[in-house]
Amino acid sequence: MFDEKFRKVMSKNEALEGFRVLDITRIIYGPWAANLLAVMGAEVIHVEMPKMGDLLIRGVSPGGVFPRNLSPGMMCCNSNKYYIAVDMHKPEGIEIIKNLAAKSDVIMENFKPGTFDRWGIGYRQLKEINPGIVYVSMQGFGNWGPYAERPSYDAYAQGITGLAEISGFPDGLPVKSQAWIGDYLSGTIAAFLTLTALHHREKTGQGQFIDLSQAEVLMRVMDWTWLFQEKTGRRRERSGNWDMAVVPSLIAKTSDGFVAIAAFPENEYLALCDAMGNEELKKYREPEERIKNAREIYPIIDRWASERTTDEIVEVSKKLGFAAAPVMNSKTIHENPHFNARKTVWKFEDPLYGDLAYPNPWHLQGTPGRIRWTMRPVGFDNEHVMIRILGLNESEVEELYEKEVLGKWDENFPATSPPKDWDGKKGIIY
Amino acid sequence: MKDWTEWAKENTDPKKAKEKPQALDDIKVLDLSYGSYAGLFASSLLSEMGAEVVRVEPPEGDIAREMTPEAMKIKGTGLAYLIEGRNKYHVTADIRKARGLEIIEELIPKFDVLIETFPPKYLEKLGLGREKIEALNPWIIHCAINNFGQEGPMVEGDEVPETLDYDVIAQAFGGFAWTVGLPEDYTEFPEHTRVPTRMGNWMGWYCGGAMAAFSIMTALLYRDLTGEGQFIDISPAEALMALNNYAFHLYHLTGQVINRVANFEPAAYAYNYVQAKDGLVFLAGYADPNWQALCSIIGRDDLVEKYPTLKERTNPKNFVPMTTEIEKFTKQKTREEILKIWLEYKGPGVTVAGEILKPDETMEIDHWYERGSLVKFKDRDYGDLTLQGLPAKMSESPPNLKWACRPVGADNKFIYNKYLGFDSEVLKKLEKEKVI
Asked: Count of domains in chain A?
């Protein structure tokens, strides 16, 4: 597990070391944006409600099962963070947020537009305390505009943008991606924008306010949809596993699984025709000809693939020079030697929860990303943050607990507590 | 104090972006990507933020210009490329020719970022390996994008053929398609539709490009502080792997493989699409109090009793029966009526309803145009275009859309003169030799 490559990654510098991020976000979109900064080395303080924590994500698990008291929904976008639980409905809670914001480079939130402004911790108030702060506000439809008041979830964003309607088979159903891609992709863009704002701050000393709508991010990545509809006056229809703009580029059923095949330049396409032993199809040399005749070409490839194994197709693709890859799943990825050697399959030992595995695609040679620890119980790092970062003393912290401004986990809420066999010490950093 | 939304609009309206400075106006990007919208999207994100991006195409143009529905083109360029040519200078150089490669070598010292999407080791074989690039410019951030990555057993030896780096390979190889689509036992649908399904858009390319841009920015920020450049190895397939919820984490924990579940969510219910009178509607109400809210709206407290906790509700066997019951209510109403009922609910708990639209219906929503996420743009080369604008609204250094695209080689004269001092004599010679 901890081979030479693992140690090599761990010994490298972290790109964002020294940046502090105050992460008051919920569910996936915001947490993932902050998570990306955390895997690159930023110090991220994740704020939740005492007791229940982020109820809308801690309670998310297939079958309602929480192995080792971990929440699958939460663990996938909340690594390397410090966990505090503050009741922001109390004035002392707001005071804590203000004091932390004064010492942070970035604040992220995904509450309803205007909530933080009303609470006195919006960008207008925080920039008075900390002019360099980068304030990132992440919602379904943004902070202004006709739909700004609408609540949103990823699946709604996939629905209203038409992304689901262009995915799936014409004679099946429209399908959304099971992945919360409206959250994840928007979170990735939010993290990117945050870094551009920090770069701007390096030059000017000035922070700023960022407003990013997840629905708008999905609109942005729907490639030719809008231009096609404008130019033709027709709707973009879904086309199943056939890409109608890159021909051929498809997912096909094989005799033992599923394979992706693509061959767009002439040499790749001719190689595919050779693999199929089909001279007739070579008449469509030009990409343009193939796009026009896609409905003739695709069924022939589908038929050919259905009579072969996935391995056979991948082998011949390598030999003759077109692209093919199996449709993988979490099991085959987990076992795959290539992804393991690259440490994209990142196995590590969490001090609180034991051995875990995460995807780790951040292969920056000088400053690679890495997962150090997974999620934490509600309020787990309260003492570390209040005493070491805010400089409170232990009796002040005690008082905040008594007033229920600060809190910890509550076993009545799922996946908020340490694992059952916890010794009361492991993982505590204060 | 002013109303919040008013303040937010006034300070982040993209219509005012042109008056503001840009975050990356000190960054120069050399984009050698070929046939890959992952590379193109990464450089689009940087160019929107003000970076000067120089796109290098072979003299016949990037094959990405050919990737277009119904082979539709405007002045020789496909629709998809017209979205991602934005703000970029377009030059040509044939790197398969010695002089073409030399031009790239002369450009490298003048740039901060290099993006490429070639097959692994392709540049090395041409004589422009990683060490050479680092020697030419130790401060450069070199981001190589390929589904199979730049190291690992699959790319050692001659394993990977020299092909383009495709979206569909990312969606398949990254495990993303495995979790999308109709399950095997949805026998009311034809057999060929009950398979792992690719997303209709180029999700692999776009997520790969976003991850590349994010990684490049972390490297730039690190360089601001240390002066060090670096090499970045990004795989769109791996990017999708990291964006696929808990599928991978859960497999390690429990051995459970997450499979496709149509428009349900294996870890929560209600969080799915249901049928309305005139189309589909999304409904959410999955934590206990929120499920109770949903059931009270449709007047079905019996469902709370029957499916009281997450355990019952995330049992896949219950997905269809629960939905059938909810649809007894929703099928009687239009999407608009359902939305109204949900927005008017003021009781305890939070439940959300939202309409599922066809993309032509989506295009009629004013919100997108008002916020500049869709724009009617007049391009100097390609005329009137309705295309994606800028999702990000920023108060101090916002993104900007300067032009949509440029023809192949349109900026040869300006860029080669600016960076390498070529005069028209030199350019003519290079053209004659088919280098540019």
From this structure: 2
CATH code, domain with B119: 3.40.50.10540
Smallest Cβ distance to A172: which of B83, B176, B189? B189
Answer yes or no: do B335 and B377 share one domain.
no
User: From CA A394, how far away is CA A253, in angstroms rounded?
Assistant: 63
Find tokens 């692209």 and name the residue: A323
Q: How far from each other are the two terminal CA atoms of chain A, in whole angstroms?
A: 28
Residues 207 to 226 of B: which have CB under 8 A from any A CB? 207, 210-211, 213-215, 217-222, 224-226
What is the rounded average pLDDT of the residues B88-102? 97
Please indicate, yes or no, whether residues A191 and A46 belong to a single structural domain of this protein. yes
- Per residue in B117-162, pLDDT (tens digit) is 999 999 999 999 999 999 999 999 999 999 999 999 999 876 677 9
User: Does B368 sit within 8 Å of A219, measured CB to CB?
Assistant: yes
Instruction: Assess whether A267 and A397 both reside in one domain.
Output: no
CA distance A290 to chain B (A): 9
**Interface predicted TM-score (ipTM):** 0.98
Considering the domain architecture, whether residues A90 and A215 belong to the same structural domain is answered as: yes
The percent of residues in chain B predicted with pLDDT above 90, rounded, is: 98
Domain CATH for A273:
3.30.1540.10
Tell me which residue in A124, A192, A361 faces B238 most closely, judged by beta carbons.
A361
Shortest CB distance from A159 goes to which of B213, B265, B357? B357
- State the average pLDDT over residues A281-295: 97
CA distance A153 to B353: 10
Q: Is B29 helix (H, G, I), strand (E, B) or coil?
A: strand
Sign of CA dihedral A404, A407, A410, A413: positive
Q: Between vectors from CA A263 to CA B436 and to CA A329, what angle results, nearest 5°?
A: 125
Q: Which tens digits make up the pLDDT trace of B159-180?
A: 677 999 999 999 999 999 999 9
With respect to residue A28, please indicate whether it lies within any of the assigned structural domains.
yes
Is residue B15 assigned to a domain? yes
B202 and B343 together in one domain: no
Is position A286 within any domain? yes
Best B122, B230, B256, B362 member to test A by mutation, with max A CBs in 10 Å, is: B362
The answer to whether the CB atoms of B199 and A364 lie below 8 A apart is: no
